[in-house]
């Protein structure tokens, strides 16, 4: 089955606020600032905007953004579930909406103060188990002290290490590469602050096998992107980043962060499901991808992603990484902006923007000859992914 | 270093308690009686956990609560140094146990050395009070 929207739409504008630990302003204002920046980047005016999409976890309503931005008519507005798994799902939704004619110029945004207001890393510490549909699964985990995203992910990491002989040094190399890339990125939290593998190994345990330097940045900020048809994008200011494929994936016995009841928890079946859709619809193979943005809320999740998206076989990511393949000049430079470990944790949206810059050729760590870029969303949740491609 | 041997630490006021539903009540009642229970499908014989209204293998509605052996192996674990709630005395060990019948559950490992744990080690269930409920936890078998 071919998806009829593949290759029909493009990301034509990107815009973000500063990324900080204390924005000093409301999330609504952050969202508006990012949307304005994306509209200016694309060269579209408020009267052209007719679609808006964000995460179900975003607290900023479309209608409030419309008032602030002067958008008069919205013909499509929708939201995507499952936290960081929604990242590329918002673009997937926008691409379908634009390709179907439901809207023509669709803003996609994510804004939060998740360091200065509601700390994301704190997980469900203030959310006792209740038998409501949204919370009932916590009744099987919170009493045992599994309360935070780090602890939920650590359980997958331990099993992965056991099955494939990966070590915390292998996780550390992902962090070192992210920080090296962030060191060249003036917008990154860790600009000019690279680390060594020794620094990583000396950082304290948060939830063994994850150390402090395996964890991403809780961030205040916002990111917006503008999706339109490839034809319309060609008439706008910048070079279009064509959405040659986008996909969502959820698999058997899926839970939010805690799909522990599956027979096998060392792989990422929901990502394999995305990978299969992406490669089939973009009509390319992993060999055609020159750079990738792999969701790095925690380093450990990057290894099985390299495997699920076909860059190496199951269990071989540690060797792929050790051989320098994820570095600049390597086979597949990843997270060239510094990732969510080095730049900012914007729930994956800042990674999509970096994917656009890689296609435009203006990343702060730009590899040569980038034709296709893979962007992924969160691991351990129902997820999504996309491939951005040069306009032919 | 050892973790979580004494039951006082495990039953501090403020620690999260399960809130049984109609569906999960037989599980938590079993814990109070010192019995680890799991649903088994009377048609395909598959085990189902967490509790469901119908069999997740064959959609049969003939699910029955049965007694588990309470024996299993350590399938995965994490040593929690930053619990995010002060009532949890860190470090402690959260685990996924693979029961002998093949099903997985989350729990804690009692009274162990967190720096010397081996995935695959045999474990046995024990029952530990938590407020008005009783939690199933596990101990390494030598």
Structure description:
The complex is a heterodimer of chains A (392) and B (142). With 392 residues, chain A is of the alpha/beta class. Chain A has helices at 27-42, 62-69, 87-100, 149-164, 168-182, 197-202, 230-234, 269-282, 302-308, 317-322, 339-342, 349-360, and strands at 9-16, 51-55, 76-80, 106-113, 205-208, 210-211, 220-229, 241-249, 291-293, 372-376, 383-390. The longest helix of chain A is centred in the N-terminal third of the chain and has 16 residues, at 27-42. The relative contact order of chain A is 0.19. With 142 residues, chain B is mostly beta strands. Helix content of chain B is 8%, strand content 37%. Chain B is built from two helices and eight strands. In chain B, a hairpin with a 5-residue loop joins strand 1 and strand 2. Strand 5 (205-208) of chain A pairs antiparallel with strand 4 (71-80) of chain B.
Percentage of residues assigned to helices of chain B = under 10%
**Count of alpha and pi helical runs of chain A:** 12
> What's the quaternary structure here?
heterodimer
- In the CATH hierarchy, what is the superfamily of chain A? Thiolase/Chalcone synthase
C-alpha-based Rg of chain B, rounded: 16 Å
Distance between the termini of chain A: 23 Å
Order of helices and strands of chain B: HHEEEEEEEE
Main beta sheet of chain B: strand number and arrangement?
Answer: 5 strands, antiparallel
Shape of chain A: globular
CATH C-level category of chain A:
Alpha Beta
Strand content of chain A: 15-25%
What spatial form of chain B do the alpha-carbon principal axes imply?
Answer: globular
Outline the low-pLDDT stretches of chain A: none
- Provide a count of the helices of chain B: 2
Radius of gyration of chain A: 19 Å
- The averaged pLDDT of chain A comes out at 95
Helix content of chain A: 25-40%
Give the strand order of the largest sheet of chain A, numbering strands 1, 2, ... along the chain.
Answer: 3-2-4-7-1-8-11-10-9
Task: Provide the CATH top-level class of chain B.
Answer: Mainly Beta
């Amino acid at each position: 089955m071919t998806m009829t929207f593949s290759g029909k739409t493009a990301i034509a504008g990107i815009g973000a606020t500063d990324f900080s630990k204390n924005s000093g302003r409301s999330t609504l204002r952050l969202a508006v600032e990012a949307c304005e920046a994306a509209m200016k980047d694309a060269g579209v005016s408020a009267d052209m905007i007719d679609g808006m999409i964000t995460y179900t976890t975003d607290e900023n309503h479309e209608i409030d953004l419309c008032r602030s931005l002067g958008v008069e008519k919205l013909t499509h507005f929708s939201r995507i579930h499952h936290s960081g798994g929604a990242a590329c799902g918002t673009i997937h939704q926008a691409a379908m909406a634009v390709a179907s004619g439901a809207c023509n110029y669709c803003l996609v945004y994510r804004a939060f103060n998740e360091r200065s207001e509601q700390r994301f890393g704190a997980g469900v510490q203030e959310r006792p188990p209740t038998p409501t549909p949204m919370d009932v699964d916590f009744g099987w985990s919170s009493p045992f002290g599994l309360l935070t995203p780090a602890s939920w992910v650590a359980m997958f990491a331990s099993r992965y290490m056991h099955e494939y002989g990966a070590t915390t040094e292998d996780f550390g190399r992902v962090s070192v590469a992210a920080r090296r890339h962030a060191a060249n990125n003036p917008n990154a939290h860790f600009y000019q602050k690279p680390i060594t593998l020794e620094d990583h190994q000396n950082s304290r345990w948060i939830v063994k096998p994850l150390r402090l330097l395996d964890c991403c940045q809780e961030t205040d900020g916002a990111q917006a992107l503008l999706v339109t048809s490839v034809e319309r994008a060609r008439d706008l200011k910048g070079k279009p980043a064509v959405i040659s494929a986008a996909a969502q994936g959820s698999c058997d016995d899926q839970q939010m962060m805690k799909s522990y009841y599956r027979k096998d928890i060392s792989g990422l079946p929901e990502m394999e499901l995305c990978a299969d859709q992406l490669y089939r619809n973009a009509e390319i193979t992993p060999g055609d991808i020159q750079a990738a943005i792999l969701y790095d809320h925690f380093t450990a999740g990057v290894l099985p992603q390299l495997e699920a998206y076909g860059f190496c076989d199951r269990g071989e990511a540690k060797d792929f990484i050790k051989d320098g393949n994820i570095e600049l000049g390597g086979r597949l430079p990843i997270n060239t902006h510094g990732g969510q470990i080095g730049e900012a944790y914007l729930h994956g949206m800042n990674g999509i923007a970096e994917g656009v810059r890689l296609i435009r050729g203006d990343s702060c760590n730009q590899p040569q000859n980038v034709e296709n870029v893979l962007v992924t969303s969160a691991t351990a949740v129902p997820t999504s992914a996309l491939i951005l491609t040069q306009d032919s | 270093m050892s973790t979580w041997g004494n039951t006082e630490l495990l039953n501090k006021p403020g620690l999260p308690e399960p809130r049984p539903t109609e569906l999960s009540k037989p599980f938590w009642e079993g814990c109070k009686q010192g019995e680890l229970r799991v649903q088994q499908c009377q048609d395909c014989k598959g085990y189902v956990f967490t509790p469901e209204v119908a069999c997740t293998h064959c959609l049969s509605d003939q699910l029955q609560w049965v007694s588990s052996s309470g024996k299993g192996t350590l399938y995965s674990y994490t040593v929690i140094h930053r619990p995010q709630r002060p009532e949890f005395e860190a470090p402690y060990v959260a685990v996924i146990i693979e029961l002998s019948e093949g099903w997985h559950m989350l729990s804690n490992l009692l009274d162990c050395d967190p720096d010397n744990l081996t995935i695959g080690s045999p474990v046995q269930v024990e029952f530990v009070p938590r407020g008005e409920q009783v939690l199933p936890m596990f101990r390494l078998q030598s």
